[in-house]
From TrEMBL:
<feature type="transmembrane region" description="Helical">
    <location>
        <begin position="219"/>
        <end position="241"/>
    </location>
</feature>
<keyword id="KW-0961">Cell wall biogenesis/degradation</keyword>
<keyword id="KW-0997">Cell inner membrane</keyword>
<feature type="transmembrane region" description="Helical">
    <location>
        <begin position="151"/>
        <end position="177"/>
    </location>
</feature>
<dbReference type="GO" id="GO:0050380">
    <property type="term" value="F:undecaprenyl-diphosphatase activity"/>
</dbReference>
<keyword id="KW-0573">Peptidoglycan synthesis</keyword>
<feature type="transmembrane region" description="Helical">
    <location>
        <begin position="253"/>
        <end position="271"/>
    </location>
</feature>
<feature type="transmembrane region" description="Helical">
    <location>
        <begin position="85"/>
        <end position="103"/>
    </location>
</feature>
<keyword id="KW-0812">Transmembrane</keyword>
<comment type="function">
    <text>Catalyzes the dephosphorylation of undecaprenyl diphosphate (UPP). Confers resistance to bacitracin.</text>
</comment>
<keyword id="KW-1003">Cell membrane</keyword>
<protein>
    <recommendedName>
        <fullName>Undecaprenyl-diphosphatase</fullName>
        <ecNumber>3.6.1.27</ecNumber>
    </recommendedName>
</protein>
<keyword id="KW-0378">Hydrolase</keyword>
<keyword id="KW-0046">Antibiotic resistance</keyword>
<keyword id="KW-0133">Cell shape</keyword>
<comment type="similarity">
    <text>Belongs to the UppP family.</text>
</comment>
<dbReference type="Pfam" id="PF02673">
    <property type="entry name" value="BacA"/>
</dbReference>
């Protein structure tokens, strides 16, 4: 058993758990972390990056089980708040699933690279700054207050997150805020919306690339990444909900811009940190 590889997998799990629900692009950070640590072969690393997001989303299911169960049962019983949330999540998930199934592998082949990540980070950072400086009037304070129209629009905006560096959380949270959803509700809806999208994408990628993991060690490495991402994401979710209740996302916007510019600097100068 390669203990160094397991340690790298655990570090990747921590990166995923911390970044998945922040508006800073988990996929972008995982791609960069994998390159920094020379983590695995590129083929295995690309599958790992997508698959361990399932661990982070499992933390959402654990933390919000009661509300998610209410949404699921509401679709059957017709209970108003649960039904609205359940249908909203379904409507929001359709666009990215259709586009992902059609173009997902093409996006991975063309845009899983440093330059694409950097551009996505920078553009997203400026969008966050703009929305924070021009906040719309809040009309939906809780997740259950979102209309079906809101859900569809957020789902369309989420499609942008297929581009590495854009950030699924960033796109859905900022998109929802633009539509008049409160910061807390936008953040929680982004949590929930990740469930069908991330689990679907992760399982699909594992199915399509099943032969990439050929040994027991390969699956153990993946298991370590999943477990660590679950634990770190659970901690992050609780911290982030408390954070957004009192603060804005400006710090993440500047972080994105600085990180993107730094990546471009190293790419175009050929400098190395390692």
């Amino acid at each position: 058993m390669d203990l160094l590889l397991l340690l790298k997998a655990a570090i990747m799990g921590i990166v995923e758990g911390i970044t998945e629900f922040l508006p800073i692009s988990s996929t972008g950070h995982l791609i960069l972390a994998a390159e920094l640590m020379n983590f695995w072969t590129k083929e295995k690393s690309d599958v790992f990056v997508i698959a361990i997001q399932i661990g982070a989303i499992a933390a959402v299911i654990y933390e919000y089980w009661a509300r998610l169960w209410g949404a699921a049962t509401g679709l059957i019983t017709g209970e108003e708040k649960g039904r609205r949330l359940g249908l909203g999540l379904i409507f929001s998930s359709i666009p990215i699933m259709l586009v992902g199934l059609t173009f997902g592998q093409t996006v991975k082949a063309l845009l899983f690279n440093d330059v694409a990540v950097a551009i996505g980070l920078i553009v997203g950072g400026f969008i966050i700054i703009w929305i924070e400086k021009n906040p719309p009037i809040v009309r939906a304070k809780e997740v259950e207050d979102l209309t079906f129209k809101d859900a569809i629009w957020i789902g369309l905006i989420q499609v942008l997150s297929l581009i590495p560096g854009t950030s699924r959380s960033g796109a859905t949270i900022i998109g929802a805020m633009f539509l008049g959803v409160s910061r807390k509700a936008a953040t929680e809806f982004s949590f929930f919306l990740g469930i069908p999208v991330i689990i679907g994408a992760g399982l699909l990628d594992l199915y399509q690339s099943y032969d990439v993991f050929q040994t027991n060690q390969d699956w153990i490495v993946l298991g370590v990444g999943l477990l660590v991402s679950f634990i770190s994401a659970l901690v992050l979710i609780r911290v982030l909900v408390a954070y957004v209740a009192k603060r804005d996302f400006m710090v993440f916007a500047w972080y994105r811009i600085f990180s993107g510019l730094l990546i471009l600097l190293f790419v175009f100068t050929g400098w190395k940190l390692w």
